[in-house]
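Researcher: Next entry in the queue.
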Amino acid sequence: MLHFKKVIIAALAAAAIAAPADAATLRWGSRADIYSLDPDSVPSTSNLAFLNHIYEGLVRYDANFKIEPALATEWKLIDNKHWRFTLRKGVKFQNGADFTADDVVASFKRASDPASPLRGNIPLYVGIQKVDDYTVDIEVSASTSLFLNDITNIFIFNAKWLKDNGSEKPTDFASKVEGYATMHTNGTGPFKLESRVPDSKTVLVVNPGWWDQKKHNLDRIEFVPIASAATRVAALLSGEIDFIDSAPIQDLPRLESTPNITVKKRTELRTVFIAFNRKEKLEDGRPNPFNDLRVRQAFEASIDRDLINKKVMRGLARPSGSLIAPELPGYVKDLDTYQPADPKLAQKLLEEAGQKNLAFTYMCMNDESINEEDICSGVTNMLKRGGFQPNIDIAPRAVQTSKRSNGKADVFNLSWANEPTLDAYSLLSQVLSTRNGAMGVSNYGGWSNPDLDKLVAEAAQEPDNDKRLALEAQALKIAKDQVMLIPLHQQPIAWALLNKVKSIDFRADNKPRLWLTQMAE
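Model: Structure for this entry, 521 residues:
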């Protein structure tokens, strides 16, 4: 470990020396690398947040999470099934090409392709048509304005660049499908790619031709993944890194007491869950015991959320019985309840189900959710007291993602921030719904509840906001009663930065927006 630390610090120091002397450089340390440079490759909040520095959507969120113009200047709903977007003129891609309607058409077709991992982000999308060079009509299956929220994460490519480089179809990180866009970029955003070495460093430089008003004073961003929490903190304390977006919560008191470091912390919108394989048989060929509600109830009865928060999360998480955070539309206080852990009840339920001493594999990642490795260890001990016999399968997300996405795990962790919709409809449509086309794209366990599906479909068609939220609440109650997912908590987030970083945009969605960052002069 000591050798690894020295290598990282040396590499960072060399990078700092290599940067132009007069450049305002922000050195950004994170606990994991991005997956891919293709924004359609994986529905990951962190991956899309990074790529939003290079690529942009038609619309975006303002500081209060309200929709504002980006590459589109105006939009309106026509005939209750088409959104007409007026596109911004004078925008250029980073290779000098003009931005037009052809680019929007190609990008939406790519993102909605049946092979696209991002198609679940736009479940209401039906099709797109060019009206003229600066106008497009997008057909939707329902007239709700949630569609505008959804497309904040649909980034626009240059159509000719895609065609010239054989990249009109999306790549797929989980299935190991790569292409030109995996390692190359061409967006309209505030920064452009200078270089990338996976698992080492990715460098962005300012895009001098960006169409928007510049609110940052950066010339360069150096993104360095540092998996070790101790090494990440050491890099910040030594001044080799300016900003870490994943300050280890166990180190916050130390960082907060350091004079030249500022810590920003809060509870995130993201909820951390435990989920079950719900296929007919497990991977080892056994009839799936988790299809028995009593087994899932026994699992939940074994878990002590408050103890996890106290011992693992340092009291900084928000233990939750709700599947979504309180800040999100669709949250219902009456559903935000949970019972104290009851191992004896768990044992009783398992025995009734004929599953005493149930053995299974619990798949975890050590670099996805905050302190996930410790969460898994704690949950495993709790499950043993409840009469289960879990075996932990833990590895980095680069190894585990394909297992989870392809239904190869008995029990697994999952987290969901309801991005980009910022509404319960995101979890309901993408995770809890039966997998079918754009619905249930992140339904990794293969669960299916027709009553829930019906309510989600009705919610999508309901133009009245209050009525829509009531339908969503009914669907969330089904999910809770059926223990489709077990929510543990809304996780804490903490960023730490040197005082040379004068200001930074810090929000509950945990997305760095460094085009709003100011470095001290």
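Model: The longest strand covers residues 261-276.
Researcher: Noted, moving on.
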